[in-house]
Specification:
Two copies of one chain form a homodimer. With 152 residues, chain A is α+β, with helices and mostly antiparallel strands. Chain A has helices at residues 7-14, 21-33, 41-50, 57-70, 112-124, 141-149; strands at residues 39-40, 73-76, 84-87, 96-100, 106-109, 128-139. In chain A, a hairpin with a 5-residue loop joins strand 4 (96-100) and strand 5 (106-109). Chain A binds a DNA duplex (25 and 25 nucleotides) through helix 4.
Chain lengths: 152, 152
Amino acid sequence: MARPLGPLEVGLHHDGRRLTPQRRRVLDLFEQMGSGSHLSAEDVHQQLVAAKAKVSLATIYRTLRLLVKMGFLHELELNEGGNRFELASHDHPDHHHLVCVRCGRTEEFESDPVIQAGRAAAEHVGFQLIDSTLNVRALCPSCQKLAALSPN
Amino acid sequence: MARPLGPLEVGLHHDGRRLTPQRRRVLDLFEQMGSGSHLSAEDVHQQLVAAKAKVSLATIYRTLRLLVKMGFLHELELNEGGNRFELASHDHPDHHHLVCVRCGRTEEFESDPVIQAGRAAAEHVGFQLIDSTLNVRALCPSCQKLAALSPN
DNA sequence: GTGCGTGCAAAATCTTTGCATACGC
DNA sequence: GCGTATGCAAAGATTTTGCACGCAC
């Protein structure tokens, strides 16, 4: 009996792409680990090699980007070209960032409810809050228009 | 007449460190740019060189880390050793991270107020929200005890 | 004068890419 | 069989580090 087609197969075939053992192993690993784990490319590679899978690190990188583009994975804290720094202004202790994922335009804002929610979550598990930052990924007005014309 | 001692001088001298022209130029740059700018090490270097300052990129890196440790700068989205990925579970669209800055222990949580605040901020400037993540930096219970014993 | 900070260049990381081969379809 | 995916190794990109010299104190 054939195993039922999962969303991975369907998504890949839809684009003329292929389901390889490597791709399945990568996604399987994330599913085994549960949704609480945050793995780097190196982590994924080491775990798969330890589990006797034959995968190269280059393929891990290619596969991770593919799975992100297909929506199976989220990439945490993407920093386009190096970490960034900003002035620590004590007037605005915890402020948040609204970033256009297309053009990189950034707006800042503050929000008390966000800070309170962070504090509450920290206290709930006995953590002592230091600071918090909300990163909102979005499309700015200009890029919304552009995206409507040429869906990437 | 001597210029008044700023917090940078005071903080440095307190630790037997020195105020060099390079360090002052780096902090001055951030102050000129205002609190809305997010500069990479490369950005800082290029701007200073363009402004005729004599600084090497290595010094920029060393200075940025120093200023962060001293609390003058914030480092945005620090990703310790490479970006990380997680399963995109559609049951939990936008979830948030509580990270112990000392041991790296991570807890996840969800919060409707946070999502609503992100959405409101996006709409306020005409952005179309995609997703949002709140990163809360904190000390976990064990590290609070350790920190009390050996203040780093 | 002492010793911290800098510049330079090499090294260490992390990630991407070119090309020949392997294999899913 | 066709054309995508992989492995390998080399190239890129980013960040760190060793060492001798220079300068803040």
